[in-house]
Design brief:
It contains 17 helices and 37 strands. By secondary structure, the protein is an alpha+beta fold.
Length: 789
């Protein structure tokens, strides 16, 4: 214990003093100069190792080339001229075609560049950008970026972009020269709107700026795209078609990303998925004799890898299993239905078992079993030994209880001869038969609206109107009731009769995170390493693909992860583009690109989020500025892969040319874990009008139009748009009028509704093949010509 001695202004501490030099937490510890240098050195070494690992594929004489597609965003852009200007600035002579690939070896920087002069086609630009290390976009000083150019720019950015450079072509033609800096500044303002990281726009007319651009392409490290780097991929340099129909198609290129395995399936452009026959070496011709001799010794056709017995097959569904069902029991169960299904409980009978049980006066301490045998005679006159117990009746022991809101409005006793009825005479529907014409006119006036279908969905979501001659119990036979959309259990056994034929054969992924981690770790072991130039021999490639192959357009090869060919109940998040102002209807056809693959889908939209019962509300429309989950049945995609959604529109490019298929980018999204247990529930709302109101007792009309429908749906809870809740008490007459009790007084202008739900099944996605689209166009043109003739 230290002793403090105070003398005047001096404070002397005698004894042990606490040592604050050793701190327990790292942020309080003061590092020495040696420790700071050591930590900085370790960070520098770690960063250098990461840099070497990223650029190792480009190192050496036999390193992979840096892929650089050149895309024109304006009409007057010329990618081939831009490639010639960049190659000529470093004194290299190379023949560059108008469209296609050109490989250049830059000895000054000991690197190789592979330029791709891409034509102004959306799909060609997307395919080139998938495998690009750097993307060069050409702007014009005279013409603005047109609609197609902006579509290409947004689409390339949406699918994932490694690094972007922007150039201007034809700036020297601008007169007077003092306008040129203003134009460059305007172009920079435009491109920074999409890519704020762009610091400079290179002038292709200046030789020095072209040389600086080539220097940046050779020295900078590409950022890469995460979803692409998790797979093996390559840009196809050449395709060797077989001489016979039974031959193998050979694709040549340099492997990038992960190691390429012969056991995995590969996705080739829009051709589809194929199995690998074998992978052989394909070294380039060496310049010197020593390297040429080594290549001869190695053998150009050296087999690097062949598939094993564990090679993935092309089956996308599980083997068929015979599921025996007792049709007799199913028919009996269906015939016994006398009411709508509520949650996971059975159907209600005709009596009022859906109502809460009335309290009974029983002796204190009476059990539920004794209450069933108690007749109510042996009790004292004063009632001091009695209590109100809410025991259910024996007829309603299995009936589910409705929410407790509003039970105070129930009648305590039935009307008797001595006691007056609690229902006033004015509330009873005693008209013998209403005028049908007047009733029809009133109904038409009540349902009169002036908005369109999509606008009506936005203002009155999920609300439907029944025709008076249509039976609601037949029209809504597949619908059920739910007390809560988020928490009520969903009885899946009721949906098995309506599920798709192949639903049980889909791939099930119960533990998505663990399965994905295991599949990702498989890519780190074995296979042909990245940076190797190889021949990939494919099996069973259709011969008709040779006619549709265009060597001037880029062709890509992506290796699929395990199980990515199998079909699942896929889910993808979707957000409408800010430039698309029209609502998208659910199940409307669109083209989706997810990673390297494209599909034609008819998605089912539902609300996003996690719910305890995994039930999500179906959206009829996806309105601008909103997001949803698009569900369909298609191949599995591991990881969060960006997705693009396009809509096909026909437009005439000129008066002489025929209508060609164009695309509009309507939204972007990301792939989500698949789930077959995710229930998409379509909700419909039947609304009625308060006809007569007496306190909490209301007569409702226009919801149903016959007595049998009222009895069928009497178990469901009623609600109003102003927040009241209630239930059906009894039916009145034969025209669908009924009495309902609510938890409070309702407004005469209020609407009474009841919610019903039905499961919606996702539809199958088809692989998008442009060759089939062209065949369909030709068939349609021939049909139109025959009709005109």
């Amino acid at each position: 214990m230290p002793l403090l001695i105070s003398s005047g202004y001096m404070l002397i501490v005698i004894g042990r003093v606490a040592d604050f030099s050793h701190r327990k937490t790292p942020h309080q510890q003061v590092m020495s100069k040696f420790d700071r240098r050591n930590q900085a050195r370790q960070k520098q070494q770690t960063k250098r190792k990461e840099h070497l690992r990223e650029t190792n594929v480009f190192a050496g004489k036999h390193g992979a080339p840096r892929i650089v597609p050149v895309i024109s965003l304006c009409e007057d852009g010329d990618p081939a001229t831009a490639v010639r200007a960049m190659v000529g600035s470093i004194d290299i002579e190379a023949s560059c075609p108008d469209h296609g690939q050109v490989r250049v070896e830059v000895d000054r920087f000991k690197q190789k560049l592979q330029f791709i002069a891409v034509e102004r086609d959306l799909m060609a630009c997307l395919d080139a950008a998938k495998v690009a290390d750097f993307v060069i976009c050409i702007l014009s000083p005279e013409h603005e970026v047109d609609e197609l150019g902006e579509l290409i720019l947004r689409s390339v950015e949406g699918q994932g972009l490694s690094a972007l450079f922007t150039v201007v072509q034809g700036l020297d033609r601008i007169e007077p020269p003092k306008r040129r800096p203003q134009i460059v500044s305007s172009l920079k303002s435009y491109i920074t709107h999409f890519h704020p990281e762009q610091e400079k726009i290179h002038n292709l007319d200046a030789r020095q700026e072209c040389a600086n651009l080539v220097r940046s392409l050779c020295t900078l490290t590409p950022k890469g795209v995460r979803w692409r780097e998790e797979r093996s991929w390559m840009l196809v340099d050449s395709v060797q078609w077989p001489e016979t129909a039974c031959g193998k198609v050979v694709l040549t290129g340099v492997i990038r990303g992960k190691s390429l395995k012969a056991d995995r399936l590969v996705q080739v452009g829009d051709w589809g998925d194929f199995q690998i026959e074998k992978i052989t070496a394909a070294p380039l011709e060496a310049r010197d004799r020593k390297a040429s001799k080594m290549a001869v010794d190695m053998g150009i056709d050296t087999t690097l890898e062949i598939p094993t017995a564990e090679q993935d097959d092309l089956e996308d569904l599980a083997p068929e299993e015979v599921i025996m069902e007792d049709d007799a029991s199913m028919s009996v169960a269906i015939s016994e239905k006398r009411g709508v299904l509520l949650d996971d409980h059975h159907y209600f009978s005709d009596d009022e078992t859906h109502l809460p049980a009335r309290p009974r006066r029983l002796p204190k301490g009476t059990s539920a079993y004794q209450a069933a045998w108690y007749l109510g005679e042996d009790f004292s006159d004063s009632g001091s030994d009695m209590e109100d117990v809410h025991y259910p009746d024996t007829m309603s022991m299995n009936a589910p209880a409705l929410p407790q809101d509003g039970i105070e409005g129930l009648a305590a006793r039935e009307p008797t001869e001595t006691a007056p009825s609690e229902y006033p005479q004015s509330e009873m529907f005693l008209d013998p038969k209403p005028d049908e014409e007047a009733e029809a006119e009133q109904l038409a006036a009540f349902r009169k609206r002036k908005s369109g279908e999509a606008e009506d969905d936005k203002e009155f979501p999920d609300e439907i109107e029944l025709h008076p001659n249509v039976l609601a119990r037949e029209r809504l036979a597949r619908y059920r009731g739910l007390k809560s959309l988020r928490t009520s259990p969903w009885e899946e056994a009721e949906d098995r009769a309506h599920e798709p034929e192949e639903w049980r054969r889909l791939l099930q992924v119960p533990d998505y995170k663990s399965s994905r981690s295991q599949v990702t770790r498989e890519t780190l072991v074995g296979g042909v390493t990245a940076g190797t130039r190889v021949h990939v021999h494919l099996r069973n490639v259709p011969a008709e693909l040779q006619q549709s192959y265009n060597p001037l357009q880029p062709l890509t090869l992506f290796s699929q992860l395990r199980h990515e060919h199998k079909r699942v109940a896929a889910n993808v998040s979707i957000s409408l583009s800010s430039d698309y102002h029209e609502p998208i209807k659910s199940k409307e056809e669109m083209i989706m690109q997810c990673g390297p693959r494209r599909f034609i889908i008819n998605p089912v939209f539902s609300q996003a989020g996690n719910t305890p019962n995994d039930v999500h509300k179906f959206d009829r429309y996806l309105h601008p500025g909103t997001s949803a989950i698009a569900s369909f049945t298609g191949p599995l995609t591991w990881g969060a892969v960006p997705a693009l959604f396009f809509k096909r529109t026909s437009a005439d490019q000129s008066t002489e040319s025929k209508a060609s298929i164009q695309f509009t980018l309507i939204g972007t999204g990301t792939s989500l874990p698949p789930s077959s247990s995710r229930v998409v529930a379509k909700r419909v709302i039947l609304t009625g009008h308060p006809y007569k109101i007496h306190k909490k007792l209301v007569t409702i009309r226009y919801m149903f139009f016959n007595r049998e429908d009222v009895e069928w749906f009497k178990a469901l809870q009623l609600w109003t748009k102003r927040g009241r809740s209630g239930f059906i008490k009894e039916s009145l007459g034969t025209h669908g009028y009924f009495k309902a009790t609510f938890d409070g007084r309702i407004n005469p202008q209020d609407s009474v509704g009841v919610s019903l739900y039905k499961r919606v099944w996702p539809r199958y996605a088809r692989v998008w093949n442009p060759k089939l689209e062209e065949v369909g166009e030709k068939v349609e043109d021939v049909a139109m010509d025959e009709v005109a003739a």
